[in-house]
Design brief:
This protein is mainly beta. The chain has 3 domains: 40 residues; 36 residues, no CATH class; 39 residues. The strands form 6 sheets. A 3-stranded antiparallel beta sheet has the order 3-4-5, with no helix packed on it. A hairpin with a 2-residue loop joins strand 6 and strand 7. The relative contact order is 0.08. This is Sushi domain-containing protein.
Length: 154
């Protein structure tokens, strides 16, 4: 005796094979312009803001930094103006942040903005300013008063 089993596949006419529905692969309408599914585009055109069209929705893809008509990738370090800058994310945008150099002073490393005394007895104070230790000139209270000797205080 031979048994034969018959399988019948039942399909919903509103769905496609493998669980895909007709709503997939939709184009995107973004600011009045249509973009194909799975394509990337800039908005506004010529900017460094990239979007991808995915199933009818425009999704932010990357926001590079713009400078003088060029796009710089996120985390890229660029020499701009008078120093080094890194392109970093800032919400739904990006911006350049200045990178300051550390200082080496008498065998020790100091972060930008940190101070050190030399000689170690505390006579002179120096501050790290973008890779260079600069002497900080301090006035004594009596010297401050002599600068304003002609002013009167109530």
């Amino acid at each position: 005796m031979i048994l034969v089993f018959l399988c019948v596949a039942v399909f919903n006419k509103n769905s496609c094979c493998r669980g895909r529905s007709k709503s997939h692969n939709k184009d995107c309408n973004f600011h009045g312009k249509t973009h194909k599914h799975r394509t990337s585009f800039q908005h506004p055109p010529g900017s460094c803001r990239q979007y991808k069209c995915h199933n009818g929705a425009a999704q932010p893809y990357r926001f590079d930094c713009a400078f003088r008509g060029r796009c710089y990738e996120l985390n890229l370090i660029a020499r701009l103006w008078s120093g080094n800058y890194r392109c970093v994310p800032d919400g739904d945008r990006s911006k350049f942040v200045r990178i300051f150099k550390d200082c080496t002073f008498h065998g020790k490393t100091y972060k930008n903005g940190k101070t050190a005394f030399h000689p170690p007895d505390g006579c002179r104070e120096y501050m790290c300013n973008d890779g260079k230790m600069e002497f900080i000139f301090h006035l004594r209270p009596s010297e401050l008063l002599s600068l304003h000797a002609d002013e009167t205080f109530d």
